[in-house]
Write a structure and sequence with these properties.
globular; Rossmann fold; 14 strands; 12% strand; binds 3-hydroxy-3-carboxy-adipic acid; binds FE-MO-S cluster; 531 residues; 4-stranded parallel beta sheet; alpha/beta
C-alpha cells in the first residue's frame, strides 16, 4: 500500500500531490489513530465522487419526507437531478394520504429572473403549490444562483407563512455553500430545529419511546427496522427521515432516546435536542446482523426494563436462526474475498460489518465527504481546525427549553450505562475497525480509483452510479451502496440475508472475467462504402 500511494502521488503535479498526500492514509494498526485530512475542498481539475450542498439538504435529509412540498428555487436542471434519483421509499397509511415524493417542484428560474431577481416568481410558485395541493408545509431550497443574486428565501417564506397560514421555511443550501453534501446536512438540521421540531406536544403512547436519526429508507431499510422495533415493543416516535411525515418531526421531542445511525448527516439534531429537551443520544448501526443485535441490546439496556431486555433477546434469537442458516451456505463462497468501499459519509464504515460477516476483508475504504471524526472518532473534534468553509455554515446556539427541558436519565445512570458500553454522545469512526495495511482514502479521485483496481483487483468495488460503469468496464463488479442497485433492504436481520445473497452472486459470477470488448477479441472493422 505504501508503494501504491507513492506511485499515485508521483503522477500528480507537485502542489496537488502535497495536498492529496494528507488524504491518503496507510493504516498502521497502531492504537493511536493516524490523522487524515477530510472535509476540505476538492482540488480543481480532479474528478471527485462528491455532490453539492443542495443535494445534501434537499435530496438527502428532507427528500424522504412525504408530506412536505420540497420546492426548489433555481434552474430546472437542479430539480431534475434531485427528482427521484435517490431510492428512498415511503408508505402512506392510505392511498389517499398525502405523498409528494414523486413530484418535482421547481420555480424554473430563467435568465430574466437571474437579472431582475426571482423572489416574485418564488412567491407565485408557493401560492400555486398551496392552491393545488393544500400541503401542511412547504420547504424552499436555494440552488447556486439564488445566493449569487441575493434572493431572500427566508423573507419570502415568512411572508408566505403569514399569508397562507401553513408552515413554510427556507434553506440557504446553495450548492457552493460548503465543500460537499455535508454542509447541506448541517443546514437542513438547523432549519428543522428552528422551524419544526417541538411544535407538537403529543405523541403515540408507548413505554419505550425512541427516535431513529440518520436512517433514510433507501431500498426499504426503514421498513425492516420498523418491523424489528415493533416486534421488540419499541415505539418509534419519529424517523429522520426515512418513511417520515412532518408530524413526526414536530413531536420528536416527546421521545426518551435518540438513536443515531448515520451520524454524519444528523448528529447536529441529536446534539441540539439533548441541549434543548434533555434527550440523550447514542450511536447505533443496523447494517449487519451482529451489529443489529448489538444495537438492540444497547437500546434495551438504556431503558433497563427486564421485560424489554428479555423481549429483545427473544427477537434476536428468533431472527438469528434464519440469518445463521443462510450464512452457513454462503460463507464458504465469500470467505477470503476482497472488498473496497468508497461511499458518502457513513456507509463505507457500516457496510464493513456485513462484509466481515461474509468473511470478506475491506482492503481500501473512504468517504466522499466525511469529517475527521468519521474516520478517527468523535474525540478528535476539539482538535479539528475550523476553516473558512466550515465557518460559513451557521452554528445555532441552543438553550434548554424553559418548560420542556427534562433530562431523561440522571448523570449517575448515564455513567453506569457508559461503563456497560453504552457510549453516549460518541462514535469511534471507521479506522479502528480496519486492518493494518488497509488504505483509507478521503474524497477518492477517479484516477486513484482506477489505480486501486489495477493494483488490487478486488472482488467487489462499492460506490455509486457515477463510478459503476467505469469500474465494470475494467472487469470488476460494482455494487452500489447508495441505491443498492434497486435491491435491498440491507438493514436489520432480513436486510443482512438479502445482502449475503446479492454479494454471493456478485463475487462468484464468472462474467466479469470474460469481459472483452468485441474489438479487443477481434480488432477488425468491416464496412461497405456506398456512393
Ligand atoms: Fe448518511 Fe445516507 Fe451516507 Fe449521507 Fe449520501 Fe445516502 Fe450515502 Mo448517498 S445520509 S452519509 S449524504 S448514510 S445519499 S442515505 S447513500 S452518499 S453513505
Ligand atoms: C447525492 C445522492 C447520492 C448519490 C448516489 C450516487 C444517493 O449524494 O446527491 O452517486 O450513486 O445516495 O442517492 O449519494
Amino acid at each position: 500500500p505504501q508503494r501504491w500511494k507513492q506511485e499515485v502521488l508521483k503522477k500528480y503535479p507537485k502542489k496537488v500531490a502535497k495536498k492529496r498526500e494528507k488524504s491518503i492514509v496507510v493504516h498502521d494498526g497502531a492504537e493511536v489513530l493516524q490523522k487524515i485530512q477530510a472535509n476540505v475542498r476538492t482540488i480543481p481539475g480532479i474528478i471527485t465522487q462528491r455532490g453539492c450542498t443542495y443535494a445534501g439538504c434537499k435530496g438527502v435529509v428532507l427528500g424522504p419526507t412525504r408530506d412536505i412540498v420540497n420546492l426548489v428555487h433555481g434552474p430546472i436542471g437542479c430539480s431534475f437531478y434531485a427528482w427521484l434519483t435517490r431510492r428512498n421509499q415511503t408508505l402512506p397509511p392510505t392511498p389517499e394520504s398525502e405523498n409528494f415524493m414523486n413530484y418535482c417542484f421547481s420555480t424554473d428560474m430563467q435568465d430574466s429572473n437571474i437579472v431582475f431577481g426571482g423572489e416574485i416568481k418564488l412567491k407565485q410558485a408557493v401560492r400555486e403549490v398551496f392552491e393545488i395541493f393544500k400541503p401542511k408545509s412547504i420547504g424552499i431550497f436555494s440552488t447556486c444562483p439564488v445566493g449569487l443574486i441575493g434572493d431572500d428565501v427566508h423573507a419570502v417564506a415568512r411572508e408566505m407563512k403569514e399569508e397562507l397560514g401553513i408552515n413554510i421555511f427556507g434553506f440557504s443550501c446553495e450548492g457552493y455553500k460548503g465543500v460537499s453534501q455535508s454542509a447541506g446536512h448541517h443546514i437542513a438540521n438547523n432549519a428543522l430545529m428552528k422551524h419544526v421540531i417541538g411544535l407538537r406536544d403529543e405523541a403515540p403512547k408507548g413505554k419505550y419511546k425512541v427516535n431513529m436519526l440518520g436512517e433514510y429508507n433507501i431500498g426499504g431499510d426503514a421498513f425492516e427496522l420498523e418491523r424489528i422495533f415493533e416486534k421488540c415493543g419499541l415505539t418509534l416516535i419519529s424517523s429522520f427521515s426515512g418513511n417520515s411525515t412532518i408530524e413526526q418531526f414536530e413531536r420528536a421531542h416527546m421521545a426518551d432516546l435518540n438513536v443515531v445511525m448515520c451520524h454524519r448527516s444528523i448528529n447536529y439534531v441529536a446534539e441540539m435536542m439533548e441541549k434543548k429537551f434533555g434527550i440523550p443520544w447514542f450511536k447505533v448501526n443496523f447494517i449487519g446482523a451482529e451489529a443489529t443485535a448489538k444495537s438492540l441490546r444497547k437500546i434495551a439496556e438504556y431503558f433497563g426494563d427486564q421485560e424489554l431486555i428479555d423481549r429483545v433477546e427473544e427477537v434476536i434469537a428468533e431472527e438469528m436462526v434464519i440469518v445463521k442458516k443462510e450464512l452457513e451456505v454462503i460463507y464458504p463462497h465469500t470467505q477470503g474475498k476482497l472488498a473496497m468501499m468508497f461511499v458518502g459519509g457513513s456507509r463505507a464504515h457500516h457496510y464493513q460489518e456485513l462484509f466481515t460477516e461474509l468473511g470478506m476483508s475491506t482492503i481500501a475504504a473512504g468517504y466522499e465527504f466525511g469529517h475527521r471524526d468519521d474516520y478517527e472518532g468523535r474525540r478528535v473534534i476539539p482538535t479539528i481546525q475550523i476553516d473558512a468553509d466550515s465557518r460559513n455554515i451557521e452554528e445555532l446556539t441552543i438553550e434548554a427549553d424553559e418548560t420542556r427541558f427534562n433530562p431523561r436519565i440522571t448523570e449517575e445512570r448515564k455513567a453506569e450505562l457508559e461503563s456497560k458500553g453504552c457510549g453516549f454522545n460518541d462514535y469511534e469512526g471507521m479506522m479502528v475497525d480496519m486492518a493494518k495495511g488497509a488504505l483509507v482514502i478521503d474524497d477518492l479521485s477517479h484516477y486513484e480509483m482506477e489505480k486501486l483496481i489495477e493494483a488490487y483487483h478486488p472482488d467487489v468495488f462499492c460506490a455509486g452510479i457515477k463510478e459503476k460503469y467505469c469500474v465494470q468496464k475494467m472487469g470488476i463488479p460494482l455494487k452500489q451502496l447508495h441505491s443498492y442497485d434497486y435491491g435491498g433492504p440491507y438493514a436489520g436481520f432480513g436486510g443482512a440475508v438479502n445482502f449475503y445473497k446479492d454479494i454471493d452472486m456478485i463475487v462468484n459470477t464468472s462474467i466479469w472475467k470474460m469481459i472483452k470488448a468485441p474489438w479487443e477479441a477481434e480488432p477488425v472493422i468491416e464496412a461497405e462504402f456506398a456512393v
